[in-house]
Amino acid sequence: MRSTASTPAEEKRGPGRPRGFDRETALRAVLLLFWKHGFDGTSYTDLTEATGMSKPTLYATFGDKIELFRQAMVMYAEESIAIYKEALDQPTAREAVEACLLLARGLQPKGEEPQVCFLVQGALTGSADTAALRAELSAMQREATRMLKQRLDRGKRKGELPVDTNTAALAEYFSSVVTGLSVQAANGAAPKDLNRVIELAMTAWPGKHS
């Protein structure tokens, strides 16, 4: 567990920086704001209230709003990649895919975290100023698809998939389902309906299966 005690660096805080300032804690508060309200829906007032920092100090510590979003995005990606890898590490490729779909369903939220992938939420931002940021988000999502293909390739080599399976297309298909599940979860879809979607998606699994 991370200590809440102030370090010497934290004691040397700038103007407007709250006593006992912890950068990671502040960034997580920012992450939750962007996650709940999106980039465009989060104001500087929201950010200063959540962090307890003045606007000038917020700029000095994290940069502008786009850079702040990017840092929150990196924090999320670093944490979520470990969870995604754990899902992909299931005994069989089929179980790995099902685990990924269940994660996307968004029924295992931590604390107050919203029930939608932050990368999906961020990619839906429409501001022209965030075009480069959306490209970075898309690259992260493409990396997840690449990892899924690697897991499918491993399953194929072990005979869990037919030898003629197009693992690239299969990875694209299930990645699309993951995105759709995440968006639907954010829109308030009922868990039972999302479970039916998962069941239906898994009928696309190549070859005979129970």
UniProtKB/TrEMBL annotation:
Keywords: DNA-binding, Transcription, Transcription regulation
A Pfam match: TetR_N
Biased composition (Basic and acidic residues): 9-21
DNA-binding region positions on the chain: 43-62
Organism domain of life: Bacteria
Region Disordered, annotated ranges: 1-21
UniProt-listed InterPro entries: Homeodomain-like_sf, HTH_TetR, Tet_transcr_reg_TetR-rel_C_sf, TetR_C
The name this protein goes by in its record: TetR/AcrR family transcriptional regulator
Segments forming domain HTH tetR-type: 20-80
